[in-house]
């Protein structure tokens, strides 16, 4: 690809990611791959919450009990993919992820979440727990924000 064409393509990707973080597009729900505890790849859907072009970073939120958070703490190498059937475009990225541990930053994100999203963090069982283990359990109104991990993946 000639340099200007490459620049144009990159600009289009940055715009696409910005758009996906600001409103719901085909790229808002992405697939995040981590390297699991047994070194087998693990992949799951995750919502893009923020894109910082200058840092080349994408931000996501998760429950810090989630296996993906453990994976990232052990091995920060991640990959992301998204697909827009409308334009038949696939985006694939590789990067290094980290968990944003700053409590003030976590509280800021918590304040922005809508009630249905907050409710997901009230689950007494960790995300990824097999369903039969959770069927008998109710919800706990715990200080759920403290379990919220804000992750960034620098592409
Ligand atoms: C549409 C959709 C959006 C999701 N968004 C998130 C998200 O933003 N953050 C998150 O931690 N899990 C999200 N999940 C749940 C994950 O895909 C996954 O099932 C759960 O977090 C456990 O993942 P883990 O065991 O790999 O950590 C979403 C699932 C779906 C179907």
TrEMBL record:
<protein>
    <recommendedName>
        <fullName>Pyridoxamine 5'-phosphate oxidase Alr4036 family FMN-binding domain-containing protein</fullName>
    </recommendedName>
</protein>
<keyword id="KW-0285">Flavoprotein</keyword>
<dbReference type="GO" id="GO:0004733">
    <property type="term" value="F:pyridoxamine phosphate oxidase activity"/>
</dbReference>
<dbReference type="InterPro" id="IPR024624">
    <property type="entry name" value="Pyridox_Oxase_Alr4036_FMN-bd"/>
</dbReference>
<dbReference type="InterPro" id="IPR000659">
    <property type="entry name" value="Pyridox_Oxase"/>
</dbReference>
<feature type="domain" description="Pyridoxamine 5'-phosphate oxidase Alr4036 family FMN-binding">
    <location>
        <begin position="17"/>
        <end position="100"/>
    </location>
</feature>
<keyword id="KW-0560">Oxidoreductase</keyword>
<keyword id="KW-0288">FMN</keyword>
<dbReference type="InterPro" id="IPR012349">
    <property type="entry name" value="Split_barrel_FMN-bd"/>
</dbReference>
<dbReference type="GO" id="GO:0010181">
    <property type="term" value="F:FMN binding"/>
</dbReference>
<dbReference type="GO" id="GO:0008615">
    <property type="term" value="P:pyridoxine biosynthetic process"/>
</dbReference>
<dbReference type="Pfam" id="PF12766">
    <property type="entry name" value="Pyridox_oxase_2"/>
</dbReference>
């Amino acid at each position: 690809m000639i340099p200007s064409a490459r620049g144009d393509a990159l600009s289009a990707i940055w715009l696409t990611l910005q758009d996906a973080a600001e409103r719901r597009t085909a790229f808002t729900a992405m697939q995040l791959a981590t390297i699991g505890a047994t070194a087998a790849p693990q992949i799951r859907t995750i919502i893009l919450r923020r894109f910082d072009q200058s840092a080349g970073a994408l931000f996501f939120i998760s429950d810090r009990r989630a296996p993906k958070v453990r994976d990232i703490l052990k091995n920060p190498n991640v990959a992301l993919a998204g697909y827009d059937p409308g334009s038949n475009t696939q985006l694939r990225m590789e990067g290094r992820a980290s968990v944003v541990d700053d409590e003030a930053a976590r509280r800021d994100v918590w304040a922005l979440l809508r009630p249905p999203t907050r409710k997901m963090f009230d689950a007494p069982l960790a995300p990824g727990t097999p369903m039969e283990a959770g069927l008998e359990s109710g919800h706990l109104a715990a200080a759920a924000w403290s379990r919220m991990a804000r992750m960034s993946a620098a592409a």
